[in-house]
Write a structure and sequence with these properties.
alpha+beta, Immunoglobulin-like
């Protein structure tokens, strides 16, 4: 019985060493790939950073993300105006203002986009028959893309025709 065990060990031992060598090389390869991924991820994060915020107001919510690309292009503002309860895009007349200046109308899906000069702005999402929702001051600089989403509450005010 011991003779058979010695025979099996003598036959399988070279294969065991080869298998162990392959496993060690695979571990080394996997570690190199992991380090390359970490380096790549660090590069991506350094060249493009963002901050995401969600705020609630009495007239609705807004959410924004500032993506810093490092380019010198004017800031780009993109986003959507949606209904607060259902999150369905505002399909009626919708618009976005920067300060007191109207900047864009929404399309049929509630989307908008425009460019603006660098600065600090309070943006306002508007829609009929919704209450407006105004953001706090948001700083945008050259190279920034601001993703801005408004969730408007339906207005409870009764509109009266002027006489």
């Amino acid at each position: 019985m011991q003779n058979k065990m010695e025979q099996i060990m003598s036959v399988t031992q070279p294969y065991s060493r080869a298998l162990l060598l392959v496993v060690n090389r695979m571990k080394s390869f996997v570690m190199e790939v992991c380090w390359l991924f970490v380096i790549f991820l660090g590069f991506v994060c350094n060249s493009c950073s963002s901050n995401q915020h969600i705020y609630s107001t009495k007239n609705g919510d807004y959410q924004y993300t500032v993506i810093k690309t490092g380019s010198n292009a004017p800031p780009v503002i993109i986003g959507k105006v949606s209904e607060f309860e259902t999150k369905i895009p505002v399909r009626t007349v919708g618009a976005v203002k920067a300060g007191d200046k109207p900047m864009a109308k929404t399309d049929a899906n509630g989307n908008f986009s425009f460019t603006i000069e660098s600065g600090s702005y309070k943006f306002t999402g508007l829609g009929i028959p919704y209450d407006f929702c105004e953001t706090k001051s948001i700083n945008v600089a050259n190279g920034d893309t601001l993703k801005l989403y408004f969730y408007l509450k339906i207005s409870t005010e009764v509109l009266h025709e002027g006489k």
